[in-house]
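Support request, please re-run this one:
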Amino acid sequence: MSEKYKVRDQDQLHFITFAVSDWLDLFTRKEYRDILVESLQYCQQNKGLELYAWVIMTNHIHLIGRAAQDHKLQDIIRDFKKYTSVMVCRAIEANQKESRRTWLLWLLARAARQSKKHQKYKLWQNQYHPIELNTNKKMEQRLAYLHKNPVKAGWVEVPEDYLYSSARNYAGKKGLLDIMFIE
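Re-run finished. Output below.
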């Protein structure tokens, strides 16, 4: 990871983005998105992830979060990416109804061949981009940007209508994940 993108202050909120290899539109399927949601929930309950906002797009994820005391955000993200990589690739392999299965697995295998760390498939790009949210302005900008992503993509008219986002929580609706609120 470059010097520009490092978690320096574990107590600070961070805006985090990580993307699928080659920016593949992988998370168009509910079953793959659900693997990410379940893993985020596990990280909240067992790994010390304090989640304030999130959205799953077709080829990337945005989070606003930090690590609870005695945890490190980079370790949580590393474990999340490693686990979801294995589980999503297994789900693709097992999904006989996946019309893009052969193509997706070929692309993920090609990405792995270009990497020294990966043996079979490479789901995620190596880096992720933790941006420290050390001012209210940065927090407000990133929260709005994150929640407006599905609107900008043309999937919904208002952010809270997108199920795979914390915008529902911020609008007072039940979301898929419990979050902490930015105040």
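The helical segments are 30-47, 73-94, 101-113, 136-152, 167-170. The longest strand covers residues 49-56.
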